[in-house]
């Protein structure tokens, strides 16, 4: 049977009692049918991945004891996604796939034509955690609080931001990347696109670079995943042998 893999918040060290997070005891006992003495893999984004055993489990409570480190902690590339919030299912799908693609942080940005004005950050964090558990990441992406697009860029640290632009003839994203290394960011607008004043204000910033994402018009969720894949393939950790 497969060994469950769980994110925990506590420190990981040999012999230390580690409390499972809410819901994990039920998952181990009722979904995975695990019991005391069974193995589980743990990670916390700081101490690598550990082989642990279940010391006790009762209803939704479990205590896990790390036994040995399986993988040391390794930092992933600082690739960020700025995204106009989408409807719930699409937004959760993007967060899941962005986590699998190794994005370091996800920044919901509110735009003039956005269809969603509120973001459930706790729910998105849960989606990211579950995706990280499944894809064997050693950390979780940070889910930033939703901000107005201009306020987010006003506070930006100068990291290059590539903005997908449907119209005109911007250079392809791949053509912008030679010689660049992370930190890098991708900005994807709402389904209705940016307004002209919005686009003008954004692209006047010295760290924002318009790019093309191919000859077809992409849905926002497709553009996010496609753009992140290009960033990882040409400037991220896909260039490093696993």
From TrEMBL:
<feature type="domain" description="Ribosomal RNA small subunit methyltransferase E methyltransferase">
    <location>
        <begin position="78"/>
        <end position="232"/>
    </location>
</feature>
<keyword id="KW-0698">rRNA processing</keyword>
<comment type="function">
    <text>Specifically methylates the N3 position of the uracil ring of uridine 1498 (m3U1498) in 16S rRNA. Acts on the fully assembled 30S ribosomal subunit.</text>
</comment>
<dbReference type="GO" id="GO:0008168">
    <property type="term" value="F:methyltransferase activity"/>
</dbReference>
<dbReference type="Pfam" id="PF20260">
    <property type="entry name" value="PUA_4"/>
</dbReference>
<keyword id="KW-0489">Methyltransferase</keyword>
<dbReference type="InterPro" id="IPR029026">
    <property type="entry name" value="tRNA_m1G_MTases_N"/>
</dbReference>
<keyword id="KW-0949">S-adenosyl-L-methionine</keyword>
<dbReference type="InterPro" id="IPR046887">
    <property type="entry name" value="RsmE_PUA-like"/>
</dbReference>
<dbReference type="InterPro" id="IPR015947">
    <property type="entry name" value="PUA-like_sf"/>
</dbReference>
<dbReference type="InterPro" id="IPR029028">
    <property type="entry name" value="Alpha/beta_knot_MTases"/>
</dbReference>
<comment type="similarity">
    <text>Belongs to the RNA methyltransferase RsmE family.</text>
</comment>
<keyword id="KW-0963">Cytoplasm</keyword>
<dbReference type="GO" id="GO:0032259">
    <property type="term" value="P:methylation"/>
</dbReference>
<keyword id="KW-0808">Transferase</keyword>
<dbReference type="InterPro" id="IPR046886">
    <property type="entry name" value="RsmE_MTase_dom"/>
</dbReference>
<dbReference type="InterPro" id="IPR006700">
    <property type="entry name" value="RsmE"/>
</dbReference>
<feature type="domain" description="Ribosomal RNA small subunit methyltransferase E PUA-like">
    <location>
        <begin position="24"/>
        <end position="66"/>
    </location>
</feature>
<protein>
    <recommendedName>
        <fullName>Ribosomal RNA small subunit methyltransferase E</fullName>
        <ecNumber>2.1.1.193</ecNumber>
    </recommendedName>
</protein>
<dbReference type="Pfam" id="PF04452">
    <property type="entry name" value="Methyltrans_RNA"/>
</dbReference>
